[in-house]
Design goal:
By secondary structure, the protein is of the alpha/beta class. It has 2 domains: 3-89, Alpha-Beta Complex (Sulfite Reductase Hemoprotein, domain 2); 93-234, 2-Layer Sandwich (Sulfite Reductase Hemoprotein, domain 1). The protein is 32% helix and 20% strand. It is built from 7 helices and 12 strands. The chain has helices at residues 3-11, 36-49, 72-81, 112-121, 195-212, 219-226, 228-234; strands at residues 14-16, 22-28, 55-56, 62-68, 85-86, 92-93, 97-98, 134-135, 137-140, 154-160, 169-175, 187-188. The strands form 3 sheets. Strands 1, 2, 3, 4 and 5 form a 5-stranded antiparallel sheet that branches. A 5-stranded mixed sheet has the order 7-9-10-11-12, covered by helices on one side. The model has no long low-confidence stretch (mean pLDDT 95). The structure holds iron/sulfur cluster.
Length: 237
């Protein structure tokens, strides 16, 4: 199999694995969740076409290793029929991670699932979107930041605005973090934002990155190159 074939399969959610002839099915959550039927479908695929193993990824996805090349079309149909989204790898937007927020966590301040949905549906910023390099978004319901907003390109968490007389709940935003071999801690924007303002920041940051980053340049390095002040002006801060 040549590299182009492998890239095409990777875009469909099947990654070549270490053992020759086998592929890993990579799926992702929608709004941070799988439903019970989807979990049953993934379990069925793993039993029938894999080796009964399901691996949970750091970005809340589920992977099924040991899928044979000849089974990929059948597995793909089963995944789509169950309404499961494929995960991503390579340059592009990775699966957005989201904690439960105020949907059921007692510390949650914001509706994390709702924000996840708005980013995908209203901005069309969704997993696999082509970008110059890896780019991640993490949403947490409160300053405990269980999804690690500080080491993500765009990290968002719910926050009480202590400067507001009514102490309204808003959104804190971190930009320019990443993990990997050269980890960077994101910087936190000084204000507490509304949800609509957060959407605008996400849109402008992704657009700026897509337009100005060189191939394989992560956001942290782009900000370093253009300067933080210019970057903030570009995204309307
Ligand atoms: S970040 Fe906050 S709301 Fe989200 S799971 Fe952690 S404690 Fe709960």
């Amino acid at each position: 199999m040549n590299n182009m074939d492998q890239d095409a399969l990777r875009k469909r959610g099947f990654l070549r694995q270490k053992q020759n002839g086998f592929f890993i099915l990579r799926t992702r959550t929608t709004e941070g969740n799988y439903n019970a039927d989807q979990l049953s479908a993934i379990a069925g695929i793993s039993k029938e076409y894999g080796r009964g193993i399901i691996h949970t990824t750091i970005r809340q996805g589920l992977e099924v290793p040991f899928i044979k090349l000849e089974d990929i079309d059948k597995v793909e149909k089963m995944v789509h029929a169950a309404g499961i989204e494929m995960g991503a790898s390579g340059p592009g937007l990775r699966s957005t991670t989201s904690c439960p927020g105020n949907n059921w966590c007692k510390s949650g301040l914001i509706d994390t699932f709702g924000l996840f949905k708005r980013i995908e549906k209203e901005l069309d910023i969704r997993c696999s979107m082509d970008l110059p390099h890896k780019f991640k978004i993490a949403i947490s319901g409160c300053p405990n930041t269980c999804t690690r907003a500080q080491v993500t390109e765009i990290g968002i968490h719910g926050q009480i605005d202590t400067k507001d007389r009514e102490r309204r709940v808003g959104y804190a935003v971190y930009l320019g973090g990443c993990g990997g071999r050269n980890p960077q801690t994101a910087f936190k924007l000084e204000r507490v934002f509304t949800e609509d303002e957060v959407l605008s920041l996400v849109k402008r940051t992704v657009e700026f990155y897509k337009r100005d980053a060189k191939p394989r340049q992560r956001l942290a390095l782009l900000i370093e190159e253009v300067g933080k002040e210019k970057f903030l002006r570009e995204i309307g801060c």
